[in-house]
Amino acid sequence: MALFKRHLGLRVAAVASVASLLVLGLQTPASAASPTISSFSPTSGPAGCVVVITGTNFKDPMVTSVDIGGTPVSAFKVVSGKEIWAAVAGEASGTIHVTNASDTASSPSDFTNANPGGCSPTITFVTPCGGGGGPAGSVVTILGTNLLKSSGTATSPPVGGDVRFAPYTATATHTETPESPGLLGVVVSPDAIDGSIRVSTFNDVLGEGAVLGATFIVPPPDLSCSPADHARSITLSLRRHLVAQGRVSSFEDPAFTNCVASVPVRIQRRVSGRWRTVGRTTTTDTGVYKKRIKDRPGKYRSVAPGFYQFNDLCFRAVSSVRRYNL
Q: How many Cα atoms within 13 Å fall on the side-chain side of residue 303?
């Protein structure tokens, strides 16, 4: 009898434990935070326009619904705890709301349904060489604004806009690398010829959902861009006992550090008509480098990878070189 009671007591305790877990599972976690919306962009646009919503706590817990003026947005993507991409549905207009298990947040202002409103795409920069060109099969990175479009389905998140090279007969293949409202990566089409790059988003009408910008050249030049397009320069001086030192700096802003920190630098000496690397180092956070090399006379140079700078992004280009004769 005592053994039966012991087994019964254990079973009751187990059931009580499971029941407690079920009850707890229905409650909002103590750490859950209410979402907030600080801003969104663009502030106006038609159906298919992709709106970037900025705020906090979009993943704590995960935002499960978005609406614009009460019209549900089913095609959205929670990019991070601070950003959501939402494709406008129909004639949605009004206050934007995002909801998670904890609460609902409202935008500080209303979204206006308009065509094109502020949703037209723009192209501000193209690599390589600021739009210098590239052969079929090479990768081109396009930077601008409003470069995403609706996926075309009610439940799939926004995707990169359609990109076409002249003569605009084929849509370029996207590279499958992470894209954003400000950046697209595509492969040059086999039939591409010289001409402007075309990006289309919520429609294919120039001045509305489409833009022509950045002349693309096929075949390319030698990928050697003019100094004004470079985001880096490099200096070199040699001290007694051959200590090579210098600085990598930005042409656009000498104080800009994103493109000058942790840059690999090679110190080279001319030997038998060829440049031979005699030392390697890396710049500091401020772009400065210093390297002890062997004490030999000759022609020296320092080499750092060249980059193009756009906002806080750096894109690799040709090498920047500074020579020094000893």
A: 15
**Residues 69-77: what's their mean pLDDT?**
94
Using alpha carbons, select from 42, 45, 85, 44 the residue that is nearest to residue 63.
85
Listed in sequence order, the residues at least 6 apart from 25 whose beta carbon sits closer than 8 Å to its beta carbon are none
Cα separation, 38 vs 82, whole angstroms: 10
Cα separation values, 40 from 14, 82, 118, 217, 239, Å: 50, 11, 12, 36, 54
- Cβ–Cβ contacts within 10 Å for residue 54, how many? 16
Answer for the pair 229, 128: CB distance below 8 angstroms, yes or no: no
Residue 151 sits at the vertex; the CA angle it makes with 145 and 154, to the nearest 5 degrees, is 125
Backbone angles phi, psi at 29, to 5 degrees: -55, 145
* pLDDT of the residue at 97: 97
Give the Cα separation of 54 and 38 in Å (integer): 6
Per the CB < 8 A criterion, the answer to whether 301 and 322 are in contact is yes
